[in-house]
Amino acid sequence: MTGKEAAARKAVGYVEHGMTLGLGTGSTATFAIQALSERLLLEKLKITGVPTSRRSRDLALSLGIPLTDFANVTRLDLTIDGADEVDANLNLIKGGGGALVQEKIVAAASDRLLIICDESKVKPQLGEFPLPVAVIPFGWQSTHLQLTSLCETATLRVNLDNTPYLTDDHLYILDLHCNPIIDPAHFEKTLRQIPGVAQVGLFCGMTSRLIIGFEDGTVEERS
Ligand code: 5RP
Fold first, then answer.
1. Res 105: pLDDT
2. pLDDT for the residue numbered 50
3. Counting CB atoms within 10 angstroms of each CB, which of 12, 109, 133, 216 has the fewest?
């Protein structure tokens, strides 16, 4: 078992009958969605999932997990999602998989956010992983210029054919190299003041519990 799978399986243990559940995106969240489908089958557990991306929606549907649209939901009981980096205060960098916009909307509407990862994601400070920033395609060059004054470099995320990568919400992503990020909450506010910025992959003060999985199948939990 990998550390990611160990963390995911532990997190799915927190799911209770009747919950409305945010389903994260990425390889760790995939383990959680798979473990959830097993519990649904074995225990006849009834939950309603709210996916954070087309990828997670397709996976959940293929595994028979009942889903609802975010439009039908006011609050979620719990969201289980991965992260690209976690610091000592449980602040996160997310969006490596490009789903940061929906992930943040769903996380903000959740009573609890469970973050699952392996030990490689835990860092004393954020910033080694490039910070994803979702930007509006119109005038992205101007947004890029303003962002580059706040970091070392900002790289437009592209597909294999060099066309701009588009999120599920039809946004571009600029990956910012700014290492270390000294004050993540303040930096997030600064970035969001730029008009073309739609969302920032910094999730500050949102994590209720962090579950770190190890290769030997053990986990460590932090709140
Ligand atoms: C997707 C995310 C993911 O949670 C993050 O990239 C971690 O991915 P993985 O679990 O594959 O390491 O934020 O937008």
1. 97
2. 98
3. 216
Q: Choose the residue to mutate in 5, 27, 85, 173 for probing ligand 1, maximizing ligand atoms within 8 Å of C-beta.
A: 27
Evaluate whether 111 touches 78 at the Cβ level (below 8 Å): yes
Which residue ranges make up each domain of the chain? 3-121+204-215, 131-200
As its CATH architecture, domain 3-121+204-215 has: 3-Layer(aba) Sandwich (3.40)
Q: Ligand 1 centroid vs 95 CA: distance in angstroms?
A: 6
Helix (H) or strand (E) holding 5: helix 3-12
Question: Which residues in the chain land under pLDDT 50?
Answer: none
Q: Output the CA 94–ligand 1 centroid distance in Å.
A: 6
pLDDT digit string (tens) for 66-124?
Answer: 999 999 999 999 999 999 999 999 999 999 999 999 999 999 999 999 999 999 999 99
**Please, what's the b/e burial string for 61-73 (b: 16 or more CB within 10 A of its CB; e: otherwise)?**
eeeebebeeeeee
Domain boundaries 131-200, corresponding CATH code: 3.30.70.260
Question: Which residue carries 């956010």 as its tokens?
Answer: 113
Place of tokens 């997030």: 188
Q: Are the C-beta atoms of 40 and 47 separated by less than 8 Å? A: yes
How far does residue 29's CA lie from ligand 1's centre (Å)? 8
